Amino acid sequence: NAGVTQTPKFQVLKTGQSMTLQCAQDMNHNSMYWYRQDPGMGLRLIYYSASEGTTDKGEVPNGYNVSRLNKREFSLRLESAAPSQTSVYFCASSEKTLDRDSPLHFGNGTRLTVT
Amino acid sequence: SQQGEEDPQALSIQEGENATMNCSYKTSINNLQWYRQNSGRGLVHLILIRSNEREKHSGRLRVTLDTSKKSSSLLITASRAADTASYFCATVVFWGKSTFGDGTTLTVKP
Known about the structure:
heterodimer, A: mainly beta, seven-stranded mixed sheet, four-stranded antiparallel sheet, 11 strands, B: mainly beta, six-stranded mixed sheet
């Protein structure tokens, strides 16, 4: 099992460029999430999808859009990148919603630098 | 501010010693989870404790939860160099959201 796979692993963008971060899970999980992690800080939730066909905003959604393409895939799009979006982005999945005691399974992250 | 806050921010111990890190939070929770992050990697789930539980064990890990004080602690017994990592608590309030603290960086010296 690959678990949660994120692509690309590294990316450098210029201010104003757009890009899509890809995430796929092979565990048949219902819920998927996008987090960002800035140096010395914990993870902050950007968007989440409780099930296929639904998405909701998290703590820091501004400047991002998401698509739950199917049960396996959940992508994160930056329409016009800004230096403040320089961060490490983590995708995660869970079998059920988190209040049903379902832990998160994380990918290894995408390290994004916006110059 | 973050729902969960870990204490201390950094901890350095010798191999074989015990490591204790604490997490405090502000609002009522559904459950609390602890994760480990090795350098340059994603987070790995360690243990989950429900709001109606007070203590839970998994191997060398012991987690306690005091809902009256809104705090939790993670104890790692007989630490090994391989335990060197950052440790995060995550609190679950709503069905779709978990809130992470800023983490405790643990260094175990061989």
